[in-house]
Specification:
Keywords: ATP-binding, Nucleotide-binding, Transport. By secondary structure, the chain is an alpha/beta fold. Helix content is 34%, strand content 26%.
Length: 229
């Protein structure tokens, strides 16, 4: 399988503390890859580097054979509004915006007209069972409803790669399963690649393959990964 997104020799430190110590990772088109491991092993840092949110201290991230490290911050932001979708554990909806306005935001930032963006946002909210909350502010929603809106926002641009950082961490088991099932269904339908960061083995089971991290490196032992801890 030809790599759509590739990280090679990725290193990243926070002050004197290394978070990534030479990670290699490839994701093929339409592939769902779970990155697992205990807290503090570098999972989220790896996701942020691959998504162009953080710059690696060393190594290279290539998307469609383009080196993200050579792009300006504005170009990387544009990439995240069009080709990439990012989903965080707690959704991070804009509290002053309604559900529909939150979901429409990436489209508006990418230059879509307001009516077109609103129509797409309403459609995607409906796909995740929260279409009736289009005019509701996040503060009036449950955690599960907020996360469904956040998933809709991450997918509304029909990205080539979805980066999902502990997407069910704030949800109960049933709601988490429902959200994951829908993410996988839509990813398969659209051919979207997914990088799924999780500490939960049940969540990782939704992926095509799993990469385990420990202390900033890929753990090839298959033992003591701390999944579920």
């Amino acid at each position: 399988m030809t790599a759509l997104l590739q990280g090679t020799g990725l290193q990243r430190s926070y002050g004197p503390t290394p978070a990534l110590r030479g990670i290699d990772l490839e994701i093929g088109a339409g592939e769902i890859v779970a990155v697992t491991g205990p807290s503090g092993c570098g999972k989220s840092t790896l996701l942020h580097c691959l998504a162009g949110i953080l710059r690696a201290d060393a190594g290279e991230v290539r998307y469609r054979d383009q080196d993200l490290g050579l792009l300006s911050e504005a170009s990387r932001s544009r990439l995240r509004r069009t080709e990439f979708g990012v989903l965080f554990q707690f959704g991070q909806l804009v509290p002053e915006l309604t559900a529909a306005e939150n979901v429409a935001l990436p489209l508006l930032l990418a230059g879509s007209g307001r009516r077109e963006a609103r129509k797409a946002a309403t459609l995607w909210l409906g796909r995740f069972g929260v279409g009736d909350l289009a005019d509701q502010l996040p503060g009036k929603m449950s955690g599960g409803q907020q996360q469904r809106c956040a998933v809709a926002r991450a997918l509304v641009t029909e990205p080539k790669v979805l980066f999902a950082d502990e997407p069910t961490g704030a949800l109960d088991v049933l709601t988490g399963e429902q959200v994951l099932t829908e993410i996988v269904h839509i990813a398969r339908q659209q051919g979207t690649s997914v990088l799924l960061v999780t500490h939960d083995a049940q969540v990782a089971a939704y992926a095509d393959r799993e990469i385990a991290l420990r202390d900033g490196v890929v753990d090839h032992s298959g033992l003591g990964l701390g999944i579920g801890s």
